[in-house]
Amino acid sequence: MDALMSPVLELSASQLARNVAAVRERITPSALMLAMKDDAYGHGIDWTLNALADDVELERFGSFDVDTGLRIRALRPRARVFAWTTSDDDEIRAAVDARLELGIGSAEYLRRVVAIARASGRSVAVHLKIDTGLHRNGIRPENWSEFVAEAASAQRAGAVRVVGAWSHLAEASDAEDDESAAGFRAAVDELHRQGIAPEDTHLTASAASWWRPELRGTVCRIGAFCYGIRSADGPQIPGVRPIAALRARVLDVGDRSVEVGIGALHGLPSTLVGASIGTPAGARQILAVGDMRSSVARWNGVSVGDVVSVFGPGDQGESDATALGEHIGTVGEEILTRLTPAVRRVAIR
Ligand SMILES: *Cc1c(COP(=O)(O)O)cnc(C)c1O
Fold first, then answer.
1. Which residues contact 167 (CB under 8 A, 6 or more apart)?
2. What are the residues facing 11 on neighbouring strands?
3. Three-state secondary structure along 201-267?
4. What is the pLDDT of residues 121-152, one digit of tens each?
5. Does domain 13-227 bear CATH number 3.40.50.2000?
6. Is the dihedral angle over the CA atoms 323, 328, 331, 334 positive or is it negative?
7. How much is the average pLDDT of 283-308?
8. In angstroms, rounded to a whole number, what is the distance separating the alpha carbons of residues 308 and 318?
9. Which end of the chain is more exposed for a tag (fewer CB within 10 A), N or C?
10. Candidate from 221, 233, 240, 331 with most ligand 1 atoms within 8 A of CB, to mutate
């Protein structure tokens, strides 16, 4: 396909800055740690960090894996970067060299980090993770006290600095989150009893940081709302808009339908049939999703080359990525992260 006719993901730096400002204003005095997993939720780590450099400076980033953390470190030599997933020894060594902070969710992982810290002669900043009910990773409450004793001894030996205590909420119900928060507070108390006073406590991601101020710690790990992705079945967030718009072009005009240049091989889920997209005449239904093109209900006055918006801020009557996700029982993040490199990324203000 002609490059001009291939789909593009437009990325708005100014909207990213506005979202970050709205989130920061909401959560202050807690600090923002921008979550950048999945290539910054499909927006691209490089684009996101470059875009932020124009308008806002953030000091803290969350990377999930070490590779992502190293990329952030390359572009932000002085920022604090937190890599929270359990990594192998080569990754730990690279992380220690790059001064990444590591999330520690098991005694076994703590021991590996301590061994590598000792061998490198460095002290590694770590955030200890209590499992408050999600059962994904983290130290179970019944093992916490013993684990803290081990971390305290590693800290006294200079191998680690415990700079944080953290957990992750299920966000399934307020009652469940309250229970998790109580478990988290008890775990932090136990740290203090054993002589560890971490400067950071962090428990909440986008939704709980926004709606449950009493659950915020000193830091909030936030991805979705900064990228303008609202929660599935959640409301629009005041001051927060999508920063990405997926645009495609009309390739062919038929009697009843119009062919547009985006399809399953660009990462558009074929199950989106029946959802609507934005056109110059407003919202129109997707009738079929093919490999490289899809058909959409026709509108009056359409011509080849017209632009349609699969998702975006709504300027053509399109819905946001979350609404498309809701149509197929998933989250907006997945609509974005499924897009393939065949979708060109285009930076706009
Ligand atoms: C993804 C993630 C976040 C950010 O979640 P959002 O809902 O996108 O803000 C925070 N913490 C952890 C551990 C995560 O995996």
1. 129, 130, 131, 132, 134, 138, 180, 183, 184, 187, 203
2. 244, 347
3. EECCCHHHHHHCHHHCCCEEEECCCCCCCCCCCCCCCCCCCCCEEEEEEEEEECCCEEEECCCHHHC
4. 999 999 999 999 888 889 999 999 999 999 99
5. no
6. negative
7. 98
8. 9
9. C
10. 221
The verdict on the CB of residue 84 being under 6 Å from ligand 1 is: yes
Rounded to whole angstroms, the Cα distance separating 301 from 319 reads 22
Q: What is the pTM of this model?
A: 0.97
| CA of 33 relative to ligand 1 center, distance in Å | 10
CA-wise closest residue to 42 among 314, 262, 245, 222: 245
Give the pair of three-digit tokens for residue 166. Answer: 């953290």
- Give residue 1's pLDDT: 55
Residue 181: CB atoms within 10 A of its CB come to: 21
pLDDT band at 56 (very low <50, low <70, confident <90, very high): confident
- What six digits make up the tokens of 324? 């498309």
pLDDT digits (tens, 9 = 90+) for 165-189: 999 999 889 999 999 999 999 999 9
Does ligand 1 have an atom closer than 6 angstroms to the CB of 35?
A: yes
Two structure tokens written together for 36:
């950048």
Of all protein residues, the one whose alpha carbon is nearest to atom 13 of ligand 1 is 168
Domain residue ranges in the chain: 13-227, 244-348
